[in-house]
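Notebook, p. 212. Picked up where the previous page left off. The plan for this session was modest: take the two constructs that came back from the sequencing core last week, fold each one, and keep the raw output in the notebook itself so nobody has to go hunting through shared drives later. Recording the first one now, exactly as returned: residue sequence, then the structure token string.
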Amino acid sequence: MLADKDLPPYVYGDLKREELVRTGSVVLHEYYFANLGGDGKAGGKIQDLLKQWFGSYEQWEAEFKRTANALGGGSGWAILAYNLHTREVHNYWSWDHMHNAPTGLPLLVLDMYEHAYHMDYGAAAAKYVDAFLQNVNWEEVNRRAETAVKAGS
């Protein structure tokens, strides 16, 4: 397409936007599936980070659930991320595959698109969020947290 001197810029712009959407979709889904399959019990570095930035696991969980449930019935992602710019840990609300926190490294990713839960939970997105948290692979999240903190140093 670069060889086509008459190609309208908006056509190339649309392709670049779609490239970003598809890349974000692949990455976030890979993170999502990799952080499933555990016993739902946090420990290690991630436990320390949650306590540092949220006061306790329970306070983090309440805020994460509220963030996720705010997306219920729609689409998007709830993402616990380490922000390389501020060196803080936040729960982020992302309404699609490409609008995420700049410099945020995902630690825990929850798919809140209806396709992720509607077959099993119908409109009961909150039940899906509860089930998700009972099945988090915290070893994977912990590995991501350790890598993120090192990257931020």
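Okay, moving on. Second construct, recorded in the same format:
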Amino acid sequence: MNKLAVFDFDSTLMDGETIEIIAAELGLEDKISKITQTAMEGKIDFFDSLTRRVALLKGLSESKVNEICHNLPYMEGAKETICELKKRGYTVVCFSGGFQNATGYAKKILGYDADFSNILHTKNGILTGHAGGEMMFSDSKGIMLKKLQSLLCVSYENTLTVGDGANDLSMFKYAGTTVAFCAKDCLKKEAAISIERKDLRLLLDKIF
């Protein structure tokens, strides 16, 4: 029996928002934070919010972005929770509206099986203010989840999803177990399980 666990990255596997931590390098953290907050509450379209925020990063060096992304604070209990899920037969995947610079590196640290995220476009090692990738839209996570379920032969009942914001809603529709982790109200309303403390190990107590 195949089982699948999908985690959001920012504010779920990682304690914070990657783009805000990057933006702090340019002194734009507050400006980007306001856009992020509005998007995660579902008040503006995710694609619009992402393109607006990425545009503000134009001119930053890719090497600086990688340095920041390789030193992010991971959520308490993230590694242990992923390890336990894998022991119990789950394929564990990360979906992120953030960036490959962060999720690809974190995969080595946290131990999940695959990551699907976006790519910051660069030219001559400098961010151009544009991005593309697999998680650009509000429904991207749901679309990718359906593809993985088909490829891995995983049922709705054997799918677990964990997230914190509005762009996680689309994957909740296709999962038998849905977890809102320190989440916005729009996601809590749709979740079967809600966790209010920043410790992913509490998830294990809820589902096993």
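Notes on construct two before I forget. The mean pLDDT is 96.
Flagging for discussion at group meeting.
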